[in-house]
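Dear colleagues,

As part of the handover before I leave the project, I'm documenting each prediction I ran so the next person doesn't have to rerun anything. This entry is a single chain, and its sequence is reproduced below.
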Amino acid sequence: MTTTGYGNLVPVTSGVQSVAIAEAITGQLFLVTAIARVVTGWTGRLRRPSR
């Protein structure tokens, strides 16, 4: 989400810059959350139930 591929097109006003920053942070948090859920699912399957 942080690289859009528009070359030298950048947000100019402070309001639009804030939206771009919020979008970048949200994208990173989403990625971290998704990876954490995948890893938790894998480790949950690898553990054997104790008796």
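The CA atoms of residues 38 and 44 lie 10 Å apart. The mean pLDDT is 80.

All the best with the project,
I.
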